[in-house]
Amino acid sequence: MVESAQQIAERAGQALFSRDRASQALGMRIVEMRPGACRVTMPVRADMLNGHRLCHGGIVFALADSAFAFACNSYDRNTVGATASVDFLAPAREGDELQAQATELWRTGRNGIYEITVTNQRNERIALFRGRSYQLDGKVTDPPKL
User: Fold this and answer.
1) Dist CA 33 CA 52 (whole Å)
2) How many domains does the chain have?
3) What pTM does this model have?
4) CA separation for the pair 98, 116 (Å, rounded)
5) Which residues contact 133 (CB under 8 A, 6 or more apart)?
6) How far is CA 24 from the centre of its chain?
7) 61 domain residue, yes or no
8) Residue 144 lies in a domain
9) CATH number, domain at 127?
10) Domain assignment of residue 22, given as a range
């Protein structure tokens, strides 16, 4: 039986997330996987706040970066980030439920460009992230080499 693109995306996302200790430790959850796209959620906890009692920018970046990683690996090809930038638009606060929606803008050969929008539970934009990916050899679902 031949797997559909959707089945490949779901299997690749699950495989990558199962080994992603950082995303797990931050309480992230993949709530949607599609070829070239992913939606990830994360609650803002007290231990994620900076000195202004706002969610640390690095934590918001990490959420967007994880959504980027799952989206660009959704074709079951080992893919890494080559560069990324973020614009912080509004603060996230303790108790917020953040959502990062990653969308593929362009992909050819070994390169891709992805846009990630981070919103809170009121659908207010918190950050805009753009990442460029680079595809390596191998499949996401193959056991990692030690």
Assistant:
1) 34
2) 1
3) 0.97
4) 12
5) 68, 72, 79, 80, 81, 82, 107, 111, 112, 113, 114
6) 12
7) yes
8) no
9) 3.10.129.10
10) 5-135
